[in-house]
Amino acid sequence: MILVDKALQQREDSGTPIQVALIGAGFMGRGLINQIVNSVPGERIAVVVNRTLEKAEKALREAGVEDIRVVTDIDGVETAIAENAVAITQDYTLATRAASVDAIVEATGAVEYGAHVVVDAIEHGKDIVLMNAEVDGTVGPILSKRAKAAGVVLTGCDGDQPGVEMNLVRFVRGLGLTPLVCGNIKGLQDEYRTPTTQAGFAAKWGQDPYMVTSFADGTKVSFEQAIVANATGMTVERRGMRGADHAGHIDELTSAYDVEELRRAGGYVDYVVGAKPGPGIFVLATHDDPKQRHYLNLYKLGEGPLYSFYTPYHLCHFEVPTTVARAVIFRDAALEPLGAPTVEVVAVAKTDLAAGTVIDGLGGYSTYGVAERADITAGERLLPIGVAEGARVVRDVAKDAVLTYDDVELPEGRLIDRLRIEQAAELPATVGESGGVGAVR
After folding, report:
1. Region 343-426: CATH code
2. What does DSSP say about strands 103-106 and 127-130: parallel, antiparallel, or unpaired?
3. Could you tell me the pTM of the whole model?
4. Phi, psi dihedrals of residue 67, rounded to the nearest 5°
């Protein structure tokens, strides 16, 4: 989005920077604070919400911010912003309801809490950027519907793999090709990793062991590819996706799929382990015009019928300010569901779960997530992993079995469960005429 830099410079020059409220000052949040403070004219961090105020303050001071004010009401937020200070608070409603805040960036990775933030932000007219694929992959479709009705932008983010994939999808479509595979390149996949096995890596990079485990055990990539599927109308080839090991270059995958099968299904989301260039993303696309296929061959993309396009990196928080500008200035979402979900992420037992077990959080010891067609998830009452945390297992579940709603007792009074019910009623998953769940858009 090359035009974003000039648009932001105009905001800077006019003295009207986009006022950003960040929810969550964890690993990615700290990086985003530093990026906006030191490298993004036309945007400023106005509010940081975090359970531990000391972490919010530390992140801001590391970025060079000196005027930091603990606030307990909206007047405090407004005063801080007016005086070019940064407000910090434990109360997300002070960010979502402050008139001077233009955009909310949700970066907690927490499903129930994140859902509350998004709902309140929508109700108070704030544009929202999700650095939270877990919320998006669990209740993104219904939240997106609410956002559109309220006239606000709710979007996934540039920089993380789903946003990078969608940028490439839009580029490929602009060339006149039809994307048929959206893929994610992983370096590791082991469903049985736990916070214990990942503790050393997490400590080395200053990350949360549960979040790191969700990367390793496949939960994160399942959420990422689910939201890409929901944004494109694609589906999965099978439960868990193909997920092949591939030590070569991503270009070699043009012969790995049957084009007619891809067309019938409406396209697949997938991932590969060990491919080059990692850790990037790829799109495999086809072109119906033989004249243009001749040119693509001339330009070294091969004879087809599938052509490989890829981005060899994803730069996470570095690119999120671009998403903020796209939403606030251009009313453009980097990534949003088309409507009803086509792919969900369901919970699989990471170990034998005895009756009475209370399921822990994403990337924990109890479950890992796999991508599944949304109509199968609904028809078989499979348990979305986004609602599994805190659920009590009511009967023994064997290792590697997919949990169902009948296997658990959910905690009472949660917003996430109400949103799931609303989503199922208003945006039910249906099987397309070809047997796929959706169509390439």
Report:
1. 3.90.1210.10
2. parallel
3. 0.95
4. -90, 95
